[in-house]
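re: ur msg from earlier - yeah i can do the S-adenosyl-L-homocysteine complex, just paste it... oh wait u already did. ok heres what im feeding in:
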Amino acid sequence: MSWIRGWRRWPNRRVSPEDASDETDPTARARERMVREQIENRGVRDPEVLAAMRRVPRHLFVDSAWAYDDRALPLSRGQTISQPFVVALMTQAARPPRGWHGARVLEIGTGSGYQAAVLAELAAAVVSVERDPELSAQAARNLAAAGYGGVVTVVGDGTQGWPASAPYDAILVTAAGPSIPAPLREQLNPDGGRMVIPIGDREGQWLTLVERHGDEWHERSLEPVVFVPLIGTHGYGG
Ligand code: SAH
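and the outut:
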């Protein structure tokens, strides 16, 4: 009676890919909807970024029932994790010229570790700098629990960059500065390295893309955003 077993295994209803993923992991459905409605529909189309954001379990990085909602959420210690769309937009814009695989990437502002996990999912070698030791330790635990233990988390003033692993094919700054920190410019790979950083005052900023070719840096404003301040020598004073 193999046809009966077959029928049992393939119940007679239409199963869309998103329902199918729901059968093994209920959070996968929330991620699928997040990617489709909040990210793809608003114009982020890079298939690698979309795939990475479908896979990284955001709920392991933010202790909230709204982990997959279209909003920024509070972390501990007065900090904020960006809304999923902004993470996707920054990641798409920072794509290194030779792709993510094996790229050397620096993140400033580890926060929960979520953005670092998205970069690690893209198979980049990630160093992430956080000024707050408690947040850094929590992020390292989140990353390990989610299977991204390869991300190097360090404590320091990220406005100085992290010279030990420079140059970087991509730099993502997830806190807002008054201007582009000179050390970060210098640590970008001269061969097409890309940095994405919110630049402006404390109330509002422009997400800015910086692209380095030799000793020339090209800047372009992408999108108005609001980030928590980048506090440090080349940021806002503490
Ligand atoms: N990318 C994070 C969210 C970052 S919130 C995530 O995915 O969850 C911004 C973070 O930048 C905060 O944790 C804040 O402590 C940190 N920060 C601010 N100034 C910094 C500096 N100079 N160096 C490193 N981290 C800094």
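cool cool. The beta strands are 73-74, 80-81, 104-108, 125-130, 152-155, 170-173, 191-200, 205-213, 216-225. ping me if u need the other ligands too
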